[in-house]
């Protein structure tokens, strides 16, 4: 807490990567909607947005506490309620429902069975990911909005401790959002399991095994000096 550089990096990189991660899920649902659309020009659409951070003041002696009023307003009224709150939830929910509707229409289109199954499985994975995304993120955002609208004084110690406990629990759930995707895909998608198994056992494991067994393939040079002396001794004996 006595290093202002670490505190500044924490409050700059943390929110930036959080926003990028949240909107990666948004763009995944949007991409799935366009990729399953019946119009060809819609299937060619791809959008990428990058949001960068800001500067602010920090008081390191009392911990990583922000003292800049503008940044406090930004986090209270834009970052938590909008950027990582309602906006990604609305985007993912809206486009996942549209992608689900597109998949239901795939049956009417003249597409190979393999393509239909892949689109259906991919859409199911994304819908499940969106459901877990909303369940993990929404409680923490509600807690942050509540604290912003109804600030709690430390004089009311019991209420302050309860809100901080709820905030810590919901924050822990929101952090699980960054790692839960892989395990959800492993559980819900047989194709993803096969591909993961193929990469691990057919690609990575042979390379690791080859790297660990390099010593067994070493070539030991022949000692020509000793063999030469041995030949000289044989000639002398003869």
Secondary structure layout:
Layout: H1 4-35, H2 40-43, E1 58-59, E2 65-66, H3 69-106, H4 113-149, H5 157-175, H6 180-188, H7 190-212, H8 224-237
Antiparallel strand pairs: 1-2
Helix pairs in contact: 1-3, 1-4, 3-4, 4-5, 4-6, 6-7
Question: What's the quick description here?
Answer:
This protein has 238 residues and is mainly alpha-helical. The protein is 74% helix and 2% strand. Among the domains are: 4-137, no CATH class; 181-211, no CATH class.
Any overview of this molecule?
The protein contains eight helices and two strands. 74% of the residues lie in helices and 2% in strands. It has a two-stranded antiparallel ribbon with strand order 1-2. The model is unreliable at 47-63 (pLDDT under 50).
What labels describe this entry?
single chain, 238 residues, mainly alpha, two-stranded antiparallel ribbon, 8 helices
Helix count, DSSP H or I runs of 4 or more residues? 8
Overall 3D shape: globular
Distance between the termini: 86 Å
Helix content: over 70%
Low-confidence stretches: 47-63
Largest sheet: 2 strands, antiparallel
Q: Indicate the radius of gyration in whole angstroms.
A: 29 Å
Overall pLDDT score:
73
Structural class: mainly alpha
Proportion of beta-strand residues: under 5%
Helices and strands, in N-to-C order? HHEEHHHHHH
Spatial strand sequence of the major β-sheet: 1-2
Number of strands: 2
Subcellular location: Membrane
Domain G-protein coupled receptors family 1 profile: 64-185
Protein name: G-protein coupled receptors family 1 profile domain-containing protein
Keywords: Membrane, Transmembrane, Transmembrane helix
């Amino acid at each position: 807490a006595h290093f202002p550089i670490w505190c500044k990096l924490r409050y700059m990189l943390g929110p930036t990567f959080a926003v990028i991660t949240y909107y990666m899920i948004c763009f995944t649902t949007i991409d799935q909607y366009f990729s399953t659309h019946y119009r060809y020009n819609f299937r060619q659409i791809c959008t990428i947005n990058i949001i960068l951070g800001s500067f602010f003041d920090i008081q390191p002696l009392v911990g990583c506490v922000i003292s800049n009023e503008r940044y406090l307003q930004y986090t209270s009224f834009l970052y938590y309620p909008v950027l990582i709150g309602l906006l990604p939830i609305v985007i993912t929910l809206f486009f996942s429902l549209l992608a689900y509707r597109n998949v239901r229409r795939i049956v009417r289109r003249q597409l190979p069975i393999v393509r239909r199954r892949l689109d259906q499985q991919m859409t199911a994975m994304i819908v499940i990911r969106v459901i877990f995304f909303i369940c993990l993120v929404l409680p923490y955002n509600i807690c942050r909005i509540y604290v912003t609208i109804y600030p709690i004084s430390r004089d009311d110690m019991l209420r302050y401790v309860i809100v901080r406990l709820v905030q810590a629990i919901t924050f822990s759930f929101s952090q699980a959002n960054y790692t839960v995707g892989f395990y959800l895909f492993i559980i819900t998608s047989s194709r993803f399991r096969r591909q993961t198994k193929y990469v691990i056992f057919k690609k990575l494991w042979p390379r690791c095994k080859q790297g660990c067994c390099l010593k067994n393939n070493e070539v030991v040079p022949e000692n020509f000096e000793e063999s030469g002396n041995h030949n000289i001794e044989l000639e002398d004996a003869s």
